[in-house]
Amino acid sequence: MKEAFLQFGGAVFGGGSMLTQSVPLKESPLAWQLAGYSYTATGYGRKIPTRYMVQWEGRWRRVYCCVLSNNGTLYLAKGSEWLCTVDLYDDGKES
């Protein structure tokens, strides 16, 4: 079963304690993802839409990825602001 954990606070958001919240996760690929294309020619970018959506505060929100080097950070955004980081977990079992 796939799960998502939203992480508020911590180093990304100015320090302090970290709050982690489990939320529902679904795959909802966009048309260009189904066609096998990349969002950018290089694969790098600050707000790359992923194929995942999480339910938070009563609505489904797209998970974005910031890739500036060899790894990326998943996050939720509202406009240009980061709301929280996202951690995806898959235990390998279907429910």
Q: What is the structural class?
A: mainly beta
The stretches of 5 or more residues where confidence is low (pLDDT under 50) are none
Largest sheet: 7 strands, antiparallel
| Helix and strand element order | EEEHEEEE
- What is the overall number of helices? 1
Which whole number gives the mean pLDDT?
Answer: 87
* Distance between the ends: 6 Å
What is the β-strand count?
A: 7
Oligomeric organization of the protein chains: single chain
How large a portion of the residues is in β-strands, by DSSP E? over 45%
The rough form would be described as globular
Q: In which range does the helix fraction lie?
A: under 10%
Explain this structure.
This protein has 95 residues and is mainly β. The chain has one domain (2-90). It has one helix and seven strands; from the N terminus they run βββαββββ. Strands 2-1-7-6-5-4-3 form a seven-stranded antiparallel sheet, with no helix packed on it.
How are the secondary structure elements laid out?
Elements: E1 2-10, E2 15-23, E3 25-27, H1 31-34, E4 45-56, E5 59-67, E6 72-78, E7 81-90
Antiparallel strand pairs: 1-2, 1-7, 3-4, 4-5, 5-6, 6-7
Based on the model shown, name its key terms.
mainly beta, 1 helix, globular
Quick structural summary:
With 95 residues, the protein is mainly β. The protein has one helix and seven strands, in the order βββαββββ.
